[in-house]
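Narrative progress, year one. The postdoctoral researcher (J.K.) led the effort to move from monomer predictions toward full complexes, under supervision of the PI. The following entry was the first complex the group processed end to end, covering 655 residues in total.
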Amino acid sequence: MQAELGRRAARALMASAARTPRGVRAAARSAGSATAGATSAPGWRPAPSSLSSPVSHASNDSAAARCSGTASTSGRCSTTAAAAAPGRAAAAAAQAAGGSSTRTRTITRSSPGGSADGGGGGQDVRSAYIHLPFCKRKCFYCDFPVEAVGRDPAAPKVEARMAAYVDTLLREVAATRRLGSAPLESVFFGGGTPSLLPPALLGRILEALDDRFGIAAGAEVSLEADPGTFDLPRLRAYGRLGVSRLSVGVQAFQQELLTACGRGHDLAEAEAALEAVRAAGLRSWSLDLISGLPGLTPDMWAASLERAVAAGPDHVSVYDLQVEEGTPFERWQRAGRLRLPADEAAVEMYGTASRLLTAAGFEHYEVSNYAKPGHRCAHNQVYWRGLPYYAFGLGAASYLRGRRFSRPARMSAYSDWVAALADSEVGRAGAALPGGHLPEESQEELLLDTLMLALRTADGVDLARLRARHGAAAVGVVLRALRPHEQVGSAYAVDGAGRRISIAEAAVASSPILNPKAASAAAAAAAARGDEQGSAAQGAGEEELEARPGPAAGSAAALAAARERSQSGAQAPAEGSADGSAEAQAEGATGAVRVRLSDPDGFLLSNDVISDVFAAFDLPPSGLSDCEGDTEGEVSAGSGDKQPGGVERKPVAAA
Ligand code: SF4
């Protein structure tokens, strides 16, 4: 199978494998890919829009899932749209640091400085990722760019290091061009362990972002936090600065597991952290767990999930441990000293998580992520939907104007890079576009990214949008490739009302020729994207018809009935349960005809399904870009919720 895939597809597959359940990774390995090294292979790193690896990191699932929700919280972040007075955020930061003021930071809708040029490849850029690389110690599974600061992060020399890093980061922000005129709607502080950063420094960053890009009222501002690095006053200080969402990297509720993976916190600190998070009353918070840790048993896993649910989070991220090249875990594995759960046990644990969390009211909205209604991570959905975003900091990967760009992952190289950027003519004018010299992603890359990311979410692939972007032929190929998986229950379609339908019915319901409503949807999708490709979708229904199932998948009578329903505007009958709650529908892709993988079995097999879909396109290697390193930094080719450098942030080992 792998030989049939283009290089890009194969790499994407490997990248995705790195973040999926062990069973999936095993499937990828059998296809010839080396998942363990996928994210760190020389010359290539998975792009930020691809998926992340199975373990969650400190909490930074920017992909993670650590983030979620939107809107400001509980009174600590004002949602008013008042214009910001210069220096206001700085004042709030100072108050937060002092901890004595009750004044809140007002997130503004001001018109920030900097040039607005309609950017993001025709889209406003509404999201920013900020990498804060400091941790108490380095976990045994971690391959992120991290600086260990020891057990006393409040030591003057440690705070001086952090302050110097923030100075550098702010230079990068000031030099960067603003694309579009809309303010930021999501900001994600990932790491590293962002909760090590003193509130005053965090306030400086938010102030700089607000001045430069604007931060929308009610924006989701997420911060990854590890137990043992914060207390209630610190959380309240973050809240006054506008932090609305916390992602807490607990990872396990067994002391022996925390010890075995070298975490910087113990179980008592985890319990204290959860108590503080609950008392802080943030609008939304996520709890991160890692499955597949050495010594973890299914019973222990079930106990951790139950304890997590009892803690009352709004969101849970579950990452499967991925052994990364160059880590102590990798060395111990090679030496036969690392005893990980068997693949079968890992698959069982994945199913247990899906079952328990769904029963507790969480929507399984992405392979590794679960959310209560209204608490999906807005920032991670930007990655999964292929939308543009800024990124700042060590090793961080941005996606602007169709170009993915990763900053240097060594501190000295990053500092040099920022100095060169800021001192350049465009940097001094605040007009730099890091990575702007790189070629845009090709249509093939965009297509593969879109499919790989969308098929790992509960929203699935929006057929009207796929047609508008990539033409009707792409829709036909995808539907054909999914038909065998539909027959075994791993894939299905959803109509505009969120009801389950067959893929044959979806082909008809989404065809502009067979269904006039679909033509309107295609035109709307094209208009929303601001391009002309949507018109190309018109009149291309023949390819979709080719996706009609054969006798085994559906009858001609069923197809005719579906066509009649579509043309009359009537709803297709439900074939199964509705696709999630009403809230989930509202939060997801309501109104679109979509195809998706089932939960949890389809998600568990997502690598297999995605590889089949990629193979169906039969893209030649020459049609795919290599995305090798670049002189300014490093280009990341893949995607995912993993930051920095496009490395999957969470789904593997969390911080
Ligand atoms: S896994 Fe997270 S907490 Fe651990 S060293 Fe890496 S970034 Fe830090």
